[in-house]
Design brief:
mainly beta; 6-stranded mixed sheet; single chain; 5-stranded mixed sheet; 30 strands
């Protein structure tokens, strides 16, 4: 080759390479897109057409199975599919693994989602529209323009959701320890905790803890085996081995909450309310702790109404959910019962509560 030509070629080579690189970048930045105007949407099918009207039963597991005809763009290009369920202007999406030709949805799993997310009502028939969208992909795996997505015609299925199974909570909780029955399940000192009114899984009790060195724990039956010192989260106390301990002596409200898997021990808050205390304003008339007991003085003549308060209990302003009264010298807890009998007091009388003994006086 002529040396002069070779020299010119050598000088032009970098420019040619830069030109090729620019072309590659241009092609990457501006990929050839499919012709969306000629695209054919996928066709979605329910495998078992007899399932087009479904009553979900939690004791009979089943599943929805969908298949489809692929979308067509007139050119070979990778496609990603997504199944979408829509009702009440809310949607649930089910991404589909590339290359799959069907998708199955367990009905029991779907039941909870159609109630919580799509707003269907348990026991009532509702309609859900299912659509399948196809999204073309570049070689890099990034989706192309949204305008390139094509979606199937809606496939409408009627559902009657089942009522989700209610969690099973114990019917009773007992607290035992050195100060509460002397570790003897037959003792009258064992604490039978009170259910919060119509809030299953939540139990409470107020007790005076005289010595922080004394240990205690709980069980749902008066026996050994199954006893526990925590449900997973402890608030206001510590666990040592298999026992519970408070940091110092005092009158505490103990709240065992199976719904939150939490046990909370906090300084007891007890209030009077109603005519005997001058008004129905909650939180205004506290009982005071004195020598392991709690006392308050009636401001007016009227029926005695007393309640415990705990933010952890989650009862809001419904003070009567943790209400109790003094009847025949005993502290009587409302629990899950109806409104309690009247306990009249007169102005100036002192109400004293001894939670450990389970007694109350009005003098």
């Amino acid at each position: 080759m002529n040396k002069q030509y070779f020299k010119v070629w050598w000088l032009l080579l970098p420019a040619l390479l830069m030109g090729l690189s620019a072309c590659e970048r241009s092609n990457a930045d501006n990929p050839v897109l499919p012709n969306v105007s000629e695209a054919k949407a996928p066709v979605l099918r329910l495998v078992n057409q007899a399932q087009s009207d479904i009553v979900i039963a939690l004791d009979r597991p089943g599943e929805l199975e969908f298949t489809w005809d692929n979308a067509e763009y007139g050119t070979q290009i990778p496609l990603d599919y997504t199944l979408t369920a829509t009702a009440n202007e809310q949607s649930i999406s089910f991404p589909i693994t590339r290359g799959e030709k069907k998708i199955s949805i367990p009905l029991i799993e779907f039941n909870e989602r159609v109630i919580k997310t799509l707003g269907l009502t348990a026991g009532e028939k509702g309609s859900i529209d299912f659509t399948l969208s196809a999204t073309p992909q570049l070689e890099s795996g990034s989706p192309v323009l949204k305008d390139a997505v094509v979606t199937s015609q809606p496939l409408t299925i009627n559902f009657t959701p089942a009522k989700p199974a209610e969690p099973e909570y114990p019917e009773a909780v007992y607290m035992i320890g050195q100060e509460f029955g002397g570790w003897n399940w037959d003792s009258e000192g064992v604490v039978e905790m009170t259910p919060i009114h119509r809030l299953p899984g939540k139990f409470w009790a107020i007790r005076y803890f005289a010595d922080p060195a004394n240990r205690f724990k709980w069980n749902t039956e008066k026996k050994w085996g199954g006893d526990f010192a925590t449900l997973g989260t402890e608030v206001g106390y510590t666990v040592d081995g298999s026992d519970a301990l408070v940091a110092q002596s005092g009158i505490y409200l103990v709240l065992v909450d199976f719904t939150a898997k939490t046990i909370t021990i906090e300084p007891a808050q007890v209030f009077g309310i109603g005519d005997a205390f001058g008004s129905w304003e909650a939180g205004k008339y506290p009982f005071k702790a004195v020598n392991g007991k709690m006392t308050a003085t009636a401001a007016d003549d009227g029926n005695l109404r007393i309640y415990a308060s705990s933010e952890a209990a989650g009862i809001g302003g419904d003070w009567w959910k943790m209400e109790f009264v003094i009847l025949d010298g005993k502290i009587a807890y409302r629990g899950n019962g109806d409104d309690q009998p009247a306990a009249p007091v007169t102005a100036g009388q002192v109400i004293t509560l001894d939670f450990n003994a389970g007694t109350g006086t009005i003098n």
